[in-house]
Amino acid sequence: MSSWRNHVLTSLQQRDKKEKIPYAGVFTCLSQLEERYEIRKHFLDDVLCKSLGRGGVDVGEDTRLLQLQLRESEHMQEKLSQTVSDLTTVLYLKEAELQYRQARVSLFRQEALILARRSNTQRASLSELEYTLECQSKELADLHEEVRGLKKALAQARREKEELLQRWMEEKRVEADRLNKYNDTQERWQRLAKQLKKELCIEIGKEYVPIVTNTWNGQSEMLPTAIHWINNTSEIQRRHSNSEHVSTVTQV
Predict the structure, then answer these.
(1) Parallel, antiparallel, or unpaired for β 220-221 and 213-214?
(2) Looking at the whole model, is its pTM more than 0.90?
């Protein structure tokens, strides 16, 4: 869409360059000459009308030419005055515009200086922030590494805790079994001791009748042989019970 437009525009520019621009000066001169011709024709008609209006007095050719030149000079003077006035106005406008442009340039220069200072400040701040970011990134990486290490240590500690808990529970279970066995053993030994003591008392009552003798103070006492046998039996039972208790505690 834009390609054919560019092609037409390029063709028109080439045509103007070949056919219009070389003859621009000729066209300008021709326009000025036509304008002067029209002005002189108008002034000549005016001079002829004035000369005929003076009672039919015929003036000379030189006088007409002088009057025509005078009118042309006056017209050129007016035109030049108008041109000077227009140029003066344009000059004032250009000076005002120039001052405005200079004020704008000064304002833009100040703004550019302010922006340059701000840019330098922001660059310094950016450098500091980049350095801070780099340091924080390194610290974050170190913290991540430390966290990974702590997680591994925590997992290891949890595993060890579980293992220790299992071992402790197993040991407590074994200890509880040993205590239960020991208590059962003690109960059996106590029952057995009671039974033996009961049977012993019955046997002693059957086989040995205490011999009572009168002492000097009138009290009765058993024979030393029966008393010694009873004490020996009690000592043997007590030693056997103690040896069993020591053996059980050693196993626990």
Answers:
(1) antiparallel
(2) no
